[in-house]
């Protein structure tokens, strides 16, 4: 049994296809990492720039030449947390505050996830659904070239469509995905599995189309790297894929194969 088979909990008939596709990315000779894509001259709006995943997205974009615009209800604190971004006072839950926020932006990244346990006002219907859709309308008005949404694995599970409580987050995330697709904005949807705070680059990353029903984990830093690769590739427009960490000898294989993998 391979490392992948031992590490992942796979379900039903999907298991063989998931293992095969992931192992195809694992079994290749290692080599140096390819250069990160350049975003020189581009302005990219990042929603959720102070979040655990969003901070990685921002730092990578800045390191590769992008100008980053972000928004927060508390600009003073946000500037301390992420000092090199251009900050605008706005709240994703208040649609009126987003008016014109994407003007002049080339691309948009949505890296916000509702967390009503920490803040009861961050309800999933307002953040994961209405917030995603409202920002899509702003991206459309600004003629943005791409909107990358960090969603979640499991959103298409029928059991989640009638769920309440915490599980309802996935139902609202699917509503947000559908609203983004209906907006007409060129878009890419990334569905990470459970995210952990291990450093990126420790493992390879598997990218599988649609909503692969697996139990696995992925580094937040690796998710941010997937976002950057997505922002730099026309191959991912209109695509939805799951990402997860995969034990393997060549941890950079997915970066070299990215355009080919997401076209499958």
Report the principal-axis shape. Answer: globular
CATH superfamily: NAD(P)-binding Rossmann-like Domain
One letter per element, helices H and strands E, the order comes to HEHEHEHEEHEHEEEEEHEH
Q: Total strand count, please?
A: 12
CATH class: Alpha Beta
The order of strands across the largest sheet is 4-3-2-5-6-7-12-9
What's the helical proportion of residues? Answer: 25-40%
How much strand? 15-25%
Structure description:
It contains 8 helices and 12 strands. The N terminus is likely disordered. It has a single domain, classed as NAD(P)-binding Rossmann-like Domain (Rossmann fold). 34% of the residues lie in helices and 20% in strands. α4 links the parallel β3 and β4. α3 crosses α7 and α5 runs parallel beside α6. It has an 8-stranded mixed β-sheet, sandwiched between helices. With 264 residues, it is of the alpha/beta class. The longest helix is centred in the middle third of the chain and has 18 residues.
Question: What is the compact description of this entry?
Answer:
The chain is of the alpha/beta class and 264 residues long. The protein is 34% helix and 20% strand.
Task: Please tag this protein with its features.
264 residues; alpha/beta; Rossmann fold; eight-stranded mixed β-sheet; two-stranded antiparallel ribbon; 8 helices; 12 strands; 20% strand; globular; disordered N terminus
